[in-house]
Specification:
Layout (H helix, E strand, L loop, with lengths): L2 H13 L2 H8 L3 H15 L4 E4 L2 E4 L1 H27 L5 E7 L10 H8 L4 E7 L1 H9 L5 E6 L6 E16 L19 E5 L9 H7 L5 E6 L2 H9 L5 E4 H6 L5 E5 L6 E9 L5 H17 L1
Parallel strand pairs: 3-4, 3-5, 7-8
Antiparallel strand pairs: 1-2, 5-11, 6-9, 6-10, 6-11
Family: Belongs to the LysR transcriptional regulatory family.
Keywords: DNA-binding, Transcription, Transcription regulation
Pfam families: HTH_1 (PF00126), LysR_substrate (PF03466)
Length: 294
C-alpha cells in the first residue's frame, strides 16, 4: 500500500464515483480503477460495489476509511511541517475576477491562509477574461471567475450561486418591480461587461426570446462604470443579489429576473493536470468549503 492508493481510496469514498475521484486526483479513469483493484487484492476485501450509478463503499470500506483518512492527513502534515521548518513555503497564485469578492464571505482568503498556513497564497485581481488567459497559460494555479467558464479540461467547484435582477434608473422607467414587463425595455441599451465575449448575464438573450429588441453595449470593462451609466438613465444591466445588497438603490429599480434560470455563479477553476502538494491542499480546502454550503 502506498500514499497514492490511500489518497485515491479516500477520494473515491468521499465522491462515490471513480470518475469524479480520478478527475480530482488528476489520473486517468483506467489507472484509477486499476489502483483500487490492486488495493482490494492486497487487503483481501471488496471496497466498492460498482454499478452504473457510481462506486458505493462496502461495510469494509466504511471501517477502513477513518484510518486511511487519518494516515493521509498525517502524511500531508509531515510534508507540510518539513516545508515550514525549512522555510520553503510554496506559493499559490489565485486570479480573481472583478466583482466576485462580493459573493464570497468576509475573510474568505484569510480563513484559507489560516487553514493551510504552510502555503503562501497570492491573490491577483483581473478582468474575468484576463483570469482565464492567465489560467490557460499556466501563469496562475487557480482562478475564481463567473461561471460557467468555457475552458476545455477545466475542473470547477461552485462557490456561490445567486439570483439576478434587472436594474434600471427610475428616471429611465418609473415602474415598481411587481408591475414591470420585459417589453418595457424595447429599444433600451443593455450594458454588458467587456468586448468580444459579452456578459450581460443573459439579459439580451432573454429579451430576444420575448421578442423584445434591445441594443447591447459592450464597450465598458468596469462594472462600477456600468452602474453609473445605469444610474444616469442611459440603459439597463443585470446585477446579482450581492450587488443589490451593497449599493444604495434609492434611485434604482431592481426587478427579479423573469427567468429564474438566469443565475450569478462563481466558480473556483483549475486546469486538469498533475498537482503539487500545495495545490492539492488548496483544492481540498475549496471542496470542503463548497461541501459545507450544501
Amino acid at each position: 500500500m502506498n500514499f497514492n492508493q490511500l489518497e485515491w481510496f479516500c477520494a473515491a469514498y468521499r465522491t462515490h464515483s471513480f470518475a469524479k475521484a480520478a478527475e480530482q486526483t488528476y489520473v486517468s479513469r483506467q489507472a484509477f480503477g486499476k489502483a483500487i483493484k490492486t488495493l482490494e487484492d492486497e487487503l483481501g476485501v471488496e471496497l466498492f460495489v460498482r454499478d452504473e450509478s457510481g462506486a458505493h463503499p462496502t461495510e469494509a470500506a466504511d471501517d477502513i476509511f477513518p484510518f486511511a483518512w487519518r494516515c493521509l492527513k498525517n502524511m500531508q502534515a509531515i510534508r507540510q511541517t518539513a516545508a515550514m521548518a525549512d522555510g520553503r513555503r510554496p506559493v499559490i497564485t489565485i486570479a480573481i475576477a472583478d466583482g466576485v469578492l462580493e459573493s464570497l464571505p468576509d475573510g474568505f482568503f484569510e480563513t484559507m491562509e489560516k487553514d493551510i498556513p504552510w502555503v503562501e497564497i497570492h491573490v491577483e485581481k483581473h478582468f474575468y477574461m484576463r483570469c482565464t488567459e492567465l489560467l490557460e497559460a499556466g501563469r496562475v494555479e487557480f482562478a475564481i471567475v463567473p461561471g460557467p467558464l468555457k475552458t476545455e479540461g477545466a475542473e470547477r467547484v461552485a462557490l456561490a450561486d445567486e439570483p439576478v435582477y434587472l436594474v434600471f434608473s427610475r428616471s429611465m422607467l418609473d415602474v415598481e418591480p411587481e408591475s414591470f414587463r420585459i417589453d418595457q425595455l424595447r429599444g433600451s441599451t443593455v450594458f454588458a461587461v467587456g468586448k468580444g465575449d459579452l456578459s450581460d448575464l443573459g439579459l439580451s438573450e432573454l429579451a430576444a426570446r420575448c421578442g423584445v429588441d434591445v441594443c447591447t453595449n459592450g464597450q465598458y470593462n468596469d462594472y462600477e462604470l456600468i452602474l453609473s451609466k445605469v444610474r444616469a438613465g442611459q440603459g439597463v444591466c443585470m446585477a446579482p443579489e450581492s450587488v443589490r445588497r451593497r449599493i444604495d438603490g434609492k434611485d434604482l429599480v431592481f426587478v427579479p429576473s423573469p427567468d429564474p434560470g438566469l443565475r450569478w455563479r462563481i466558480d473556483f477553476v483549475c486546469i486538469g493536470r498533475s498537482c503539487t502538494e500545495a495545490e492539492r491542499a488548496v483544492m481540498d480546502y475549496i471542496r470542503g468549503y463548497a461541501d459545507s454550503k450544501e
